[in-house]
Amino acid sequence: MVSIGDGNCSSTSPVLIAFSWFRRGKFVETEHQLKFKDYWDFHEWSYKCFPEFWDCMWRFFNIVHSEPYIEVYDRKNGFQNMEWFKGARLNFAENILKYRDSKIAIIATDAEDNTEYISYEKLYDEVRVYVKALRDEGIRKGDNVACYMSNKKEAIIAFLATAAIGAVWTGNLPLLGTQATLARFEQIQPKVLFTSGSFTFDNVEIKLIERLPEIVSGLSSLQKVIYIPSKSKNKAEDISRIPKWFVLFVTF
Q1: DSSP string of 162-192?
Q2: What are phi and psi of 2, to 5 degrees?
Q3: What dihedral do alpha carbons 219, 148, 181, 241 form, nearest 10°?
């Protein structure tokens, strides 16, 4: 299980204080020379002045972008297909990784309640390793990258690395079997697959490694399998039957 935080769970967190300041309307009051009687006055303004509210949100959170938006939203194709921040160009990973300090970015807990705290600085460094691995395999913007592992920190790091390059990420629930996984991955034809050997669900070890040879062999588009070793108490995992693999790193 993985959670992403603001670096501090207390009510005095700078992020929470800043957002509380925004929620009370102080940022909007300053930007638009307004004065709200209370929160509900601010709330009413937020939906009556919809574009102005979301413009303030964009600027308040200092969204990193390469191209600014030309309008907050475009509803010409209907509400369900509304285009937000039309014209803007940005990278999700760049906005997450703009923080590079010692504050906590990810809290990762496994099935045995072992907990690891990953700082923004460490997250940035680890994403760089994954980005290099992907680029070394020739992955570029628009290529498809797949993930077949549990919700662990390495999955998030792999996703951020994929997003940083501009490639397309897809993940499949590891509880699904071989054929169900193949049916989904065949639709997108991934060039790289991130995977691991096993995970624990409801106190039962699920061995993905036994499914991988058939899955990998069934995906003709795959150039490489990036294998993240599991922290197993048993003997070392034998991955010799998995074609196109390499180990990104080893953990102990």
Answers
A1: HHHHTPEEEE--TTS-HHHHHHHHHHH--SE
A2: -135, 135
A3: 50
pTM (predicted TM-score):
0.78
| Residue 15 per-residue DSSP state | H
Measured CA to CA, the distance from residue 120 to residue 53 in angstroms comes to: 29
Three-state DSSP at 20 gives helix
| Partner residues linked to 13 by β-bridges | none
Helix spans in 69-177 (H): 92-96, 120-136, 153-165
Give the contacts of 185 (CB within 8 A, at least 6 positions apart).
Answer: 146, 148, 170, 172, 193, 215, 219
- CA dist 36 and 152 (Å) reads 44
pLDDT value of residue 182: 93
Using CA atoms, how far apart are residues 152 and 93, in angstroms rounded to an integer?
17
Token couple for 56: 């303030």
Chain segment 57-86, per-residue pLDDT in tens: 899 889 999 999 999 988 888 778 888 999
CA angle 111–194–247, rounded 5-degree value: 90
CA distance 124 to 96: 9
Average pLDDT, rounded, for the chain: 82
Q: Are strands 168-171 and 144-148 parallel, antiparallel or unpaired?
A: parallel
SS3 119: strand
Q: Which amino acid is at 166?
A: G
CA dist., res. 186 & res. 231, Å (int): 29
